[in-house]
Specification:
The chain has 246 residues and is an alpha/beta fold. 37% of the residues lie in helices and 25% in strands. The protein has eleven helices and twelve strands. β10, α8 and β11 (199-202) form a beta-alpha-beta unit. The longest helix is centred in the middle third of the chain and has 11 residues, at 117-127. Bound molecules: the ligand O=C(O)c1ccccc1N[C@@H]1O[C@H](COP(=O)(O)O)[C@@H](O)[C@H]1O. The ligand O=C(O)c1ccccc1N[C@@H]1O[C@H](COP(=O)(O)O)[C@@H](O)[C@H]1O is lined by residues 17, 26, 29, 58, 60, 62-63, 87-91, 108-112, 134, 136, 144, 146-147, 170, 172, 177. It comes from Streptomyces synnematoformans. It is found in: Cytoplasm.
């Protein structure tokens, strides 16, 4: 079982979400709300050049069940010198093997953790630190299948995954995601209180002050923060973000 190691600084994971081969941002994760930001490799390389140590890479078509961007995603991962957390549509042996074969540092499972608990327990046992679970919530209700279906209670699922040895959680407040309205610090605190595993925060970051606020939760177990729209909207630069949490 993984214990929570408090890192010196909050890790930042710039997000590259891929739909139809393009980097996009959504609002509340809703299909059809895409704003396009061009080539995903260009975006990823931009964050890497700016000093990011992680990339949060999402195959949105795979998450929505509208196809996949496997080939493009594989190219992006293989082009990175930094660590990559890969998400979206990893729900069975085939998609897991393809994701791990890209050389990504870890995969992030969403829907599978809600719909295929036995498979996920096996994958956690086999792959340990290479597997995180994405807990994508509205309120305290988990959402799967592109965030379109309810998938049970956050804290019941967290307890089950903890018992199975899940290494870390990526916690997304869907109501905040893509809105630039600030993170849900209460949710992050509540999750940290319920588990001793590291937590990566996702959703709502709009400013350097938001990142500083998330960084105050490092002692409670928040290890990292995913930053999406704020970077694309140029609310701050990646360099400024890294400086703010260093
Ligand atoms: O990141 C998003 O904006 C997003 C929106 C809608 C659905 C999923 C999204 N992202 C990530 O995708 C995985 C879930 O994929 P799956 O359920 O395992 O197929 C999860 O990491 C979400 O945070």
């Amino acid at each position: 079982m993984t214990s929570r190691d408090t890192p010196a600084a909050l890790e930042l994971l710039p997000a590259v979400d891929v739909r139809d081969g393009q980097a996009v941002r959504l609002v509340h994760g809703e299909s059809g709300t895409e704003t396009g930001y061009g080539d995903p490799l260009d975006a990823a390389l931009t964050w890497q050049r700016a000093g990011a140590e992680w990339l949060h890479l999402v195959d949105l078509d795979a998450a929505f069940g509208t196809g996949d961007n496997r080939a493009r995603i594989g190219e992006v991962v293989r082009s990175m010198d930094i660590k990559v957390e890969l998400s979206g549509g990893i729900r069975d042996d085939d998609s897991l093997a393809a994701a791990l074969a890209t050389g990504c540092t870890r995969v992030n499972l969403g829907t599978a953790a809600l719909e295929s608990p036995e498979w996920v327990a096996k994958v956690i046992a086999e792959h340990g630190e290479r597997v995180a679970v994405g807990l994508d919530v509205r309120g305290t209700t988990l959402r799967g299948r592109g965030w379109t279906r309810d998938g049970g209670d956050l804290f019941e699922t967290l307890a089950r995954l903890d018992a199975e040895g899940c290494a870390r959680y990526v916690v997304t407040d869907i109501n905040k995601d893509g809105t630039l309205q600030g993170p849900n610090l209460r949710l992050l605190r509540d999750v940290c209180a319920a588990t001793d595993r590291p937590v990566v925060a996702s959703g709502g970051v709009s400013s350097l002050d938001d990142l500083r606020a998330i960084a105050t939760l490092v002692p409670e177990g928040v290890e990292g923060a995913i930053v999406g729209k704020a970077l694309y909207a140029k609310a701050f630069t990646m360099e400024e973000a890294l400086e703010a949490v260093s």
